[in-house]
Records
---
Amino acid sequence: MIKAAIQRVIITPPIGTPLGGYAARKSVSQGIHDDLYATAMVLQRGTDVLAIVTADLIGFPREVVEKIRKSVQKYADIPPVNVLIAASHTHSGPDLLFGYQGLASRAYTEVLIETIVGAICAGRKNLHPVEIGIGQGWLEGLGVNRRTSTGMPVDPSVGVLRIDCNKKPEGILINYACHPVVLGPDNLLITADYPGYALRVIERVFEGKVIPMFTNGAAGDINVGHSAELSAIGETIPGRTFERAENLGMMLAGEVLKTLTKIEPTPETSIAAATKEVFLPFKPLPSLEEAEALVKDKEKALDELIQKGAPTEIIAKAKIEKLYADILLQQVSERQKKPKELNPLEIQAIKIGNCALITFPGELFVEIGLKIKEKSPFPHTYIVGYANGYVGYLPTKQAFEEGGYEAVASHFAPESEEIVIEESLTLLRTLV
């Protein structure tokens, strides 16, 4: 018999908290458009207990994950290997990672940790018999490959895990691959972006009796259809509105609701978990002095173009080159100060019946996620990105050859793609 409980808590930060995700954002948060949530799903079968947490955040620093796991082991008796902590990657929530406009306060982070731990402990104490079923939907027109002229490839699959109590849904775990970046750098309101709209639609359909959760997939090169470079330098991009976020959220919610009707839950669901630490080779970087000199050169070139009144598109290209130089300098600094936060990174696999969740602590390219899914020994495999830490982008080998924002921003060497695929599949096979 499988038991479960789901607990949701508000994690909305105070107004004035820096928002994470855009270097081009000009100020801290100025208001709250919609509350942010963390949701804990606790599962038990026999002596095995798992906890899966999703949160409306840009990402979790590894040290925060470790603190949550340590407290959960102490107060809820769930081992760290069985605790998954994932972020939706909204770019309009508190900044726990980058510090472009400053980081969220230490006080907020400490309360966040205690709140999430409390949610898991509450779930642990309220376990009850359930039935679980797995389904898969298909959604085109939301996620777009931002690196290609065709917008492809993408992963249009919508993973849906349904938890029933007394033959009625009480919890839903959703998996879909797309950056929550409908709202751009000009937005200063706290919001969960399109996933928040999707979850609210589902809640309304079930009159508040169901708690849905959202996990993002291999979304490193997938967003809602705009250039990452132009967004990063703060260019105005049409369509980045709350109205569009609502429309896209309704699209996702509609596919989830349709998929739910095809799922037949069962009480005979097995669970298991495993983790593995993986070392990825770093790409070579210049010296700190060389990186600093490059930033100065690009800044000088940009200033000269602006003074000459160069065409807008020429200035935009120079801003992007300056952006790349800034990223390179930041990488050199991070590599020197915090190498242990990048390597080793953790990959985690969780089995729930004939479904497996396989995590990556950052922005896995969709092509890599699709290869893992294709070769996975499980009928249903969900890639859960932005989970158990954050190490940035992991592009494909081809993307490294092509260049671009994600390749520049990645800390890792091109051969890392093959390592992650093989290590993920090896871990998945241990749970079959």
---
Amino acid sequence: MHKGKHQTIDGLPIVDSHERAPIHITKNDVRFGAKKSPGKCAAALAAKRDYHADEARVHLGRTYLRFGKKWVRYLTPISLKAEIISFDRGGTFSPGDYMLGKMPPAKTMGKRQSASEKRRKHPRKRRGPYHIFTGVRRKVERRFSV
């Protein structure tokens, strides 16, 4: 088994999450959240409150929650990533429920993925609830004639 380097944040170890974690972002989180700040954005405030974490840092790809002397790493969902991008660019942030993802085995720290593993097809797993974007342009149906 390949042993990778131990990753740390501020000298504290990072461990991968094994469970998904729902967070509820409120209007107050959005109002007091800071733009372009992984530790003070609306999502970080909500995650810190919901899980009584000592600190939270929400990045576009990963979310880190600190409990005591360790960080727990989650996948940032695409829906939350889109809201963060919009918010950081001066747009709005839609309050609501978002689901931080657990770290899949192929994404664990120190694991190297071979080319054959990347190509392998996996059966589609049933997904949980999804987030519906609000306050954006509506979808336009296109019809093509032959």
